[in-house]
Amino acid sequence: MARVRISDVAAAAGVSVTTVSLVLNDVESRISQETRDRVRAAATAVGYEPSALARGLRRQRTKTVGLISDQIATTPFAGRMLAGAQDVARANEHLVFLVDTGSDTEVEETAIRALTAQQVDALIYAAMWHRVVSADVSLPAGTVLLDCRPAAGVVGFPSVVPDDREGGAAATRELVAAGHTRIAYIDTAEEATRPLAADLRLQGYRAVLAEAGIAIDDRLHVHGETSHRGGREAADRLLDLPEHHRPTAIFCFNDRMATGAYTAIHARGLQIPGDISIIGYDDQQFIAAEQDPPLTTIALPHYEMGRWAMEVALGIREGGVDAVHQMECPVIRRDSVGPPPAHVAKQNRRRTSQHTERSLSATPDR
User: Which regions are flagged for Basic and acidic residues bias (predicted)?
Assistant: First the structure.
């Protein structure tokens, strides 16, 4: 069916195209009220719908937002992040144009040019993993960065990322609170492509150990592939340690590695959390809550970050053009964390008592 044009309205009303345009766009003119009523009645009768894009361009608004991502549409976390952004856009009568570049720089550059040419009201640049956006990426000023941050010295881009350092601290604190002192960290592989989040979570882990007066044991910091297999191999290395060095709790870089640790522990006839407690990271759908026992983990706030990015993009909230907004990663408590085995707990209490006595004896009289 052919689209009804403004000329069809003009013919039905018996006026010029210019008159129809002035009336339908509420432009001040000397056109009589009678003629205005006739034009609007004719537009309704012929089924004319003005172009939203054209109307938006005249008002300098297109009611559209561009969202460019490296691989968000092909990952398990995409739904929550997109849902957050979409919910805000929908509530504010905006349409989201999503482009998944597959991490291809040429596709990315083409998408940025195309969306800019479409005069979208705002642009969001999203990454699937917390990372730094290179200064070489030609983004329009004011682009909102989602799950990524600008390179050092680059300004003009509000950004939101998970607070991974505090997330690592929260995971370790959960294990310390349960009474553990031999806490391992199963980390990602040591390589050039190592995620920014890995070092931030490691910093949080070490900071809490130091706060608790627990000596950092490098034997309890092991690396592996970011996968089930990598987690299992890393956990096996920890379980091969002599009993007095073996961890009673393990913090895993992500939930997939935690499932590998489950496999290694169960293969040796050990129980979770009776013999070893486990905590993961991500709260990945269909993984964390489905383990036996269900996995305690740290949730990545994908939905909340998506909402924040869209609200800033649409001017609903202040983002701070030169600030990185770090969003809390909450603890999701399930059944994989408990106290250390009884004999270890007794040793821990003895060490804690000795540590306290040494600290008191070292405190000068006042």
Answer: 354-366
